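User: Fold this, then the next.

Assistant: Folding the first:
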Amino acid sequence: MTVEVDEYLNFCGTINEFISAHMLCLGMSVNNYEHRYIWDEILTSKSIKIRPFPFEKTARRSISGMIIKDDYETTLAYNSNMGEKRKNFTISHELIHAMYHLDSENKVFTDTKDTLSYSLADILPEFQANIGASSILLPEPVLINELKKGTPPYFISNRYGISEQAIFMRLLQQMQASFEASYVAAYDTANKIMNGNSKNLAIELGRNLERKILYSNPFYEAITL
């Protein structure tokens, strides 16, 4: 098992259990999930002020968002020039930093398009923040539900405000982590699902993932009723 796979399993389990517990408390199920309620829970519990900011010139193209903690408040700023799905991912990414990485030594995280697509564990906070951002927008139980229904990826993307590229990466990492699939096999399967070439593959993957999560997420059955 590689470092990335091991860390993916550990952090994905942690954040999805957190989200599932809050879904249950908020009366949400896999059929009516809205990520904004999870945002509100984190923003309130961490006393975070969220502000859009119209970055200009070089910063407009390079900076996606940042989170800063000082003696007065914790501020989450995101680039208001971005498209809706990238805004969603950026805000979710910064919220994960707030939950797990901000401390007395690390008071600022600034993120770019590169860090928001980071998929290696050698920069652990960015790796975790990307796993967490994807999970906030599309929690594992919700993803499984949509896969089992054979929902087209473009519909999942639009329904949950997450890019198709992020869904592809999620499927790729999930198959490598959960089933020890090779990169080539996982890439090929994810590609077929994303291209809409195999509804049956999506359904089968959803069922197989469900068999795994039943034993790892104590809230799964309650939010799938």
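Now the next one, as you asked:
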Amino acid sequence: MCGRYSLSPQESREIMDILRQVQDKFKTGEVFPTDPVPVLMEAGAELAPEVMVWGYPGVGGKGRAIINARSETALERPMFRQSVLGRRCVFPTTGFYEWGHAGGQKRKYRFQLPGPDRALYLAGLWNDYAGQRRCVILTTAANGSMAEIHDRMPLVLRREQVEEWVHNPQAAGELLHQIPPELTHVEAEASQQLSLF
């Protein structure tokens, strides 16, 4: 499950360069479901950032937004099948959050790639709903770096897999079943600032 992520351009020159290309307003800092978010999507042979709403509408257009899709079953689900086949996107982030229990208390953890540049790419899907583009994050079984906190995690793409995921349907089919790279995690601060970029 991925219910929040971070988008902090100051933590990654690579992410900052992507965000400079975006014309519309979007949330930075800690990002929540239904926020306007930048994603990378296919634009001919290139990748282009575009702002979409995070979350497909709930069933029948009611209820909570659907923010995640299971990578293992997305091709089988009518809601996601066509998106897997031709509307794949990538969420540029600087980490994501998950909650776990330690010492009898619920704790919030931030997961990120090790190293100085925090660019972390999450595989996603998008679709059009009444003229509004909306997107979801794909999730997969947790790897060793995540399993002690939660049994699911976002489908993390390595930098060199981003274009393959968006442009190449055959490669995307294989990436749906990959084990994500190992991540580091730290306990997140209780409050984080949000801002519009």
